[in-house]
Amino acid sequence: MSSRYRVSIGAITTIASLRAGDPVDAVFACSRKDRLTARSGSPYLALEFRDKTGTIAGRAFRDADVLAGRFEKGDLVRVEGRVERFRDELQLEVRGVTKAETTDPTSFLPVAYRDLDELDGFLEHLAREVHDPAYRAFLDRVLGDAALRAEWRRAPCTRAGHHAYLGGLLEHTVAVGTLALEACQLHPRLNSDLLVCAALVHDLGKTREFVYGAEIGLSDEGRLLGHLVLGQRLLDGYELPDDRRLALMHCVLGHHGADGLPGRRFGSAEALALYRLNALDASVKGALEHGLP
Fold first, then answer.
1. Confidence (pLDDT) at 10
2. Is 125 helix (H, G, I), strand (E, B) or coil?
């Protein structure tokens, strides 16, 4: 059972708080639902339940087909049963499960450890390190968009890789922006205004890439276009002189590597730096979250 996310406070049952022998009557998100056959030939359901504090496996041996007709993978479900220990892991012996209704399914998604208000403060601090009037005015317009800022706080970076939780995009953005600022101090020939600005907006397409429910899913735009195209479209909506926009978009479109650029080569040291800094934060965070590759 994973418990690397914050545990809810109060009387609500959380997965991280479950112990062997505990009775359970709670609402979770169903992240796995497979109908399998036991050695006896009887069907059973292999399940997985999740909330923002972790995940736990479940098994339903009685009335498996009846229960299976009451919900689908991705639904929020009310689960009744008992926590058992099986092969040194906790799992739920499920006795009843039905689809649940809730007004806020995102409350069952994992969330960032770090305080989002604090991260917002760091984001604004980094924006103030951009002194070029055009880039600074551009960032002021981007950060002044209340709807965009709300999505920026909510979005993950990925669905199952690095920063795969609500608030992950903001956390990653602040990390890459901080690395960019440090790189410019080490290499003063870099255009710090361009690099820091690009670092702060490089992943904004992710604010349109995902949809939220019992699971983090891909929007149609995210599935068909991807966050690079979505980011370009989004940033084109904010005023910026053509020469600054060209340099900025070269960095943004190349932040996953030169293969996405014309000629498959970087046209600026700032674009190369952003690619490396983005990969550094993503790979280190991924190793810390999921282990070394």
1. 39
2. helix
Closest CA to 217 of 116, 109, 111: 109
C-alpha 194/C-alpha 6 separation (Å) is 36
- How do residues 140-188 score in pLDDT, each as one tens digit? 999 999 999 999 999 999 998 999 999 999 999 999 999 999 999 999 9
Structure token digits, residue 192: 């710090």
Q: Which residues contact 89 (CB under 8 A, 6 or more apart)?
A: 1, 57
pLDDT band for 105, please (50, 70, 90 cuts): low
How confident is residue 79, by pLDDT bands cut at 50, 70 and 90? very high
Q: Provide DSSP, 137-204.
A: HHHHHHHT-HHHHHHHHH--S-SSSTT-SBTHHHHHHHHHHHHHHHHHHH-TTS-HHHHHHHHHHTTG
Interatomic CA distance for residues 145 and 123, integer angstroms: 14
Q: What angle do CA 275, 177, 281 make, to 5 degrees?
A: 55
How far does CA 244 lie from the centroid of its chain? 30
Contact (Cβ atoms closer than 8 angstroms) between residue 71 and residue 30: yes
pTM over 0.85: no
Query: All domains of the chain, ordered by start, with CATH?
Result: 15-106 (2.40.50.140), 109-290 (1.10.3210)
